[in-house]
Amino acid sequence: MRLLFCCSSPWELKAVKNSIKSLKLKQSLDISYLCTWLGNYETLFSLTKFFCEQQQNVRDLLLVSIGFCLYYSIDWEKAPNIQIWRIINMLTKKEELPPIPFEFSSIKTIYSSEIIWTELLSEEEYYIDKESWSIEFVCNKFRIPRIFLKIPYDKIWKETTINKDIGSELLANNIDYAKLVKQLLNY
Question: Is the full-model pTM beyond 0.70?
Fold first, then answer.
C-alpha cells in the first residue's frame, strides 16, 4: 500500500512531513506528499493532475487529507482534531459521504465553501473548509480510499491570521502520527 498525505499549503505539508519522518519508522513505506493549494478549484486541479500522472500507481493508494478548518463553537477537550464523514458544499448544497476505513478521531460533518461564509448555520457546532469537498469529489471519481483529518484553528467570524508557527505546532501535537500510521497500515 502507498500512502499519500495531502495538505492545502506548503507549510502545513512540511509540518506533517516532519512529524511522520520523526517517527523513524523501521519498515520502509511508500509515502508521497502533495500540496493541493488553497480552495476548491486549485485542489480539483492539483489532485486530478497528480492522479493522472500516476495512472498505474493509484490502485494501491490511500489518501490522507490533513489540514485546518474553521469552527463555530467547539469543546477543545473533545475535539483537538476531527475526522470527516460528511461534506456539504455550501453553495450547491450537494453532499459527499467519504467512507470511514477506520475511526481515528471524533467523527464530524464539515461544510465546504469557496467563499467566506457569513451566515450562521442552524447547528450549534460546525466546521468549514475550502478543500474537503473537492478532495472527496476527485477521490470518489478515481476510486481512491481516503481519510480526512482536520484541526479546528480559526473561529468563524473572528478576524484571524494563521500563524504558521502555531499552526505547525498544532499539526505536530494534535494528531498522534504513530497511531495514525499504524491504523493506516492495518487498513
Answer: yes
